[in-house]
Amino acid sequence: MTPRKPRSPRSRPGTAPGHAIESVAADSGGVTVHWQRYSDTVFEEQPAAGLDAALTGMRPDTVDWLHFASVPDATALRWLQERLGLDPLALEDVHNGQQRSKLEFYEGHSFMVVSVPVPSAEGLGLEQLSLFLGPHWVISFWGGDPALLEPVRQRLRKSVSGRIRKRGADYLFYCLVDVAIDSCFPVLEAIREGIEDLEERLLEKPGGVEATEIHGVRRQLSGLRRLVLPGLTALQQLLHDEESPLHPSTRRYVRDVLDHQARIGDQVDNLSELTASLHEMHLSAISQRMNDVMRLLTVIATIFIPLTFITSLYGMNFDTTVSRWNMPELGFRFGYPLVLLVCLGVAGLMVWLFRRRDWL
């Protein structure tokens, strides 16, 4: 997994909810947003508009999308609370970050958090996309790769007579949720390819895969599993809750997103099972390798048992002049070569027997 980013300071235990936002003075100085305003006949875009100017220029006859490329400080968030009436609890969730996927309904607006998997060279991390939906506006906060939301921007720029320009803010809200959730599929495909590569390496050479590689994949899937169930719950709320701000014509598209989220959950479960099987194969390969080593050592020890007996027997060196029963073979002229030949013969015979029984 990617190293954890420094988190915003959290309130001390016992602090009143929303204190981080409500305890500061409202100020939008120096804060810029990517502002897009559109309707079926109008389209305007300012990539670096001042927050105050954007909030002042919002009109009820168009849809306004204000996007923050990073999370602003508490003073700017307080400005949003003052101007648009955004709930301080939701703004505190934006400020703190690291929230699970969820959906909240407030008076005059809705708030949704979508956890987005972000691959990197170090592994896989989770970033938070925060979305506010109002009667004719959407406000988004995303500090990750700007390319995530670029397909939606392109649709707004090019689709002069398309569906997205003819519908309200709830459809834009759906589009942002959809692109965030669909970003899981390339990540899952990359994980699947990694698992298949590990499986091929394990089959070709049992010792060619380290346990840390398998555990790394399991940690990634564990992180993805944490976003599946909360995401399903939030989307079901968006579809079925009486307070849902979605127009009936938009809900059928959200059902498709819900289906995508369910497919993501199924794929995560499937990949988890494959990883568990891979882990079992790895343990089995280690066990088999250990058994092979132990079998080889046992065969070697078994071969040397009779040789040890022969050499220890003839190492007693009883004096044959005292008694004729005291190992007369010690007086043979070729006794030593004969013992060596007997030892080699016994060892060769045992090796032949072991190979015939497929023990070697």
Entry summary:
The chain is 55% helix and 15% strand. With 360 residues, it is an alpha+beta fold. It has 2 domains: 19-285, Beta Polymerase, domain 2 (2-Layer Sandwich); 290-356, Up-down Bundle (Methane Monooxygenase Hydroxylase, Chain G, domain 1), CATH 1.20.58.
Question: How does this model look, in words?
Answer:
This protein is α+β, with helices and mostly antiparallel strands and 360 residues long. It has two domains: 19-285, Beta Polymerase, domain 2 (2-Layer Sandwich), CATH 3.30.460; 290-356, Methane Monooxygenase Hydroxylase, Chain G, domain 1 (Up-down Bundle), CATH 1.20.58. The chain contains eleven helices and seven strands. It has helices at 19-22, 51-57, 74-84, 88-96, 150-158, 163-166, 169-182, 184-204, 211-240, 248-313, 335-356, and strands at 32-38, 43-50, 63-68, 102-106, 109-120, 123-133, 137-141. A seven-stranded mixed beta sheet has the order 2-1-3-7-6-5-4. Strand 4 and strand 5 form a beta hairpin. Helix 8 runs parallel beside helix 10 (248-313), helix 9 runs antiparallel to helix 10 (248-313) and helix 10 (248-313) runs antiparallel to helix 11. Mean pLDDT is 85; it is low at 1-8.
